[in-house]
């Protein structure tokens, strides 16, 4: 087993941290990582957070804003010249003007927001107004799935990948890949055509797993699903082979040696630089989780999400914040787990949505707390796309949500055009979360029945972003949200005290 960082990596991290500490002497900064697996809403979260801070959104739980101590917030040139800028303006235009959801995160990007504030402390207020740079780092959640690979050799990667592919919830999806792999001898002579063909079939299987019908989350290597400029490179042209975990070293010139060499190149040239240059420099982290999407897809998706979150969060570097630690070895001292799209259910179900997420991240959260980090779990909607109402059905009043479904969304066989607002009862999330996590064995009919009862009564649609309200003076208000202010308070409230 290898470690996540080498001595050289750690030395480079110390140098980076020293540079960050020196710049913080003028204006303090906090580096906030924003991630989540596919479709969790990373781009929307970051855009809405900045929009509400800049435009004076309704943030009653964010103490600096609620107490009128925050005197302004504005975007600044970002400090890392080699990192693409998060395209905030285009994303907000998509949300506000076009009422469409912005493009998903495809690469690491960054944005610096500077908040001007008055301290809550009488002593520090006498020293003058304060400033805080908030460096927001957005990166694809799929890349998180690669971090555990730094601690696994090729044989372990193969064993894990094939164990997942052969599992009951995946075997049908992976059938083409498994059939092709069964015809390949690992000790055969290395051959580029075989490597490309097997890798292509493996990538097709991973992409099928991610599709809405399955919504599976454990899909490493993550760059296989979003290769970018590296598409077609040898470092992205490998696949797992059926080899014993304790097999002797690969013989030079064999297909196995070729695949193993490329796997190690993937870790060296793709995963390790991401960890060293971005992930290991974070101070705080938001992990967004689309719990409702997994519930819609069924028990296999929910179990897979639980495993994925446990795996990737094991790569975090949590710890208590201190000046010396931030110089020598930066640690994440606050982690927020957020169940997104809380506006897709009635507020009476928000506590239940949080309870499901707490079950999903329980092991990772306990690990982080043990290391000294603060952890919070909440249900939120960074942009609230629905409103709440009450509808009558069969003489019974039901809590409903009002919104405009995206084009093509269907309810009871009816397809919507993206212009029609509807009222719907999405169902109640189960008060008892145990049935959702009980179906580990498909032969367990009782557990299966409990899950079906809990899941079948639910229906979640995707809605268009809302039409923004305007004041009597014609001023457009900021993007509406659910608990975005509570997220802000946990993540940066203490730095503005």
From TrEMBL:
It comes from the Bacteria. It holds the Pfam family DUF463. InterPro entries: YcjX-like. This is YcjX family protein. It comes from Roseibium denhamense.
């Amino acid at each position: 087993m290898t470690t996540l960082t080498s001595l050289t990596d750690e030395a480079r991290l110390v140098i980076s941290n020293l540079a960050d500490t020196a710049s913080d002497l003028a204006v303090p900064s906090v580096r906030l990582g924003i991630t989540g697996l596919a479709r969790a809403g990373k781009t929307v979260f970051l855009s809405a957070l900045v929009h509400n801070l800049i435009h004076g959104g309704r943030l009653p739980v964010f103490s600096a804003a609620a107490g009128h101590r925050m005197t302004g917030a504005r975007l600044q040139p970002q400090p890392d010249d080699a990192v693409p800028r998060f395209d905030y303006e285009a994303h907000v235009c998509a949300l506000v003007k076009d009422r469409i959801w912005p493009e998903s995160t495809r690469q690491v990007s960054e944005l610096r927001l500077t908040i001007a504030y008055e301290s809550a402390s009488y002593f520090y207020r006498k020293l003058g107004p304060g400033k805080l740079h908030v460096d927001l780092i957005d990166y694809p959640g799929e890349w998180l799935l690669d971090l555990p690979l730094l601690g696994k050799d090729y044989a372990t990667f193969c064993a894990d990948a094939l164990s997942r592919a052969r599992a009951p919830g995946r075997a049908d999806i992976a059938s083409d890949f498994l059939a092709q792999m069964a015809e390949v001898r690992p000790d055969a002579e290395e051959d580029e055509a075989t490597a490309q063909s097997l890798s292509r079939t493996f990538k097709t299987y991973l992409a099928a797993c991610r599709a809405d019908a399955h919504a599976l989350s454990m899909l490493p290597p993550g760059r296989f699903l979003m290769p970018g400029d590296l598409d077609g490179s040898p470092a992205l042209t490998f696949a797992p082979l059926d080899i014993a975990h304790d097999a002797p070293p690969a013989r030079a010139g064999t297909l196995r040696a070729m695949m193993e060499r490329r796997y190690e190149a993937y870790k060296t040239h793709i995963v390790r630089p991401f960890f060293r240059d971005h992930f290991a420099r974070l101070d705080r982290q938001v992990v967004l989780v689309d719990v409702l999407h997994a519930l819609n897809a069924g028990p296999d998706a929910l179990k897979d999400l639980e495993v994925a979150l446990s795996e990737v969060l094991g790569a975090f570097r949590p710890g208590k914040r201190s000046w010396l630690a931030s110089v020598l070895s930066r640690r994440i001292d606050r982690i927020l787990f957020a169940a997104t799209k809380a506006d897709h259910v009635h507020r009476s179900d928000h506590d239940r949505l949080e309870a499901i997420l707490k079950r999903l991240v329980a092991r990772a959260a306990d690990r982080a707390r043990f290391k000294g980090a603060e952890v919070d779990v909440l249900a939120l909607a960074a942009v609230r796309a629905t409103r709440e109402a009450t509808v009558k059905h069969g003489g019974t009043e039901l809590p409903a949500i009002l919104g405009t479904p995206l084009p093509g969304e269907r309810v009871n066989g009816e397809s919507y055009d993206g212009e029609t607002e509807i009222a719907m009862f999405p169902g109640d999330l189960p008060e008892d979360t145990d049935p959702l996590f009980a179906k580990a064995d498909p032969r367990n009919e009782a557990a299966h029945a409990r899950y079906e009862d809990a899941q079948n009564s639910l229906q979640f649609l995707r809605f268009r972003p809302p039409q923004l309200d305007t004041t009597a003076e014609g001023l457009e208000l900021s993007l509406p949200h659910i608990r975005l202010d509570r997220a802000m308070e946990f993540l940066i409230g203490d730095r503005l005290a």
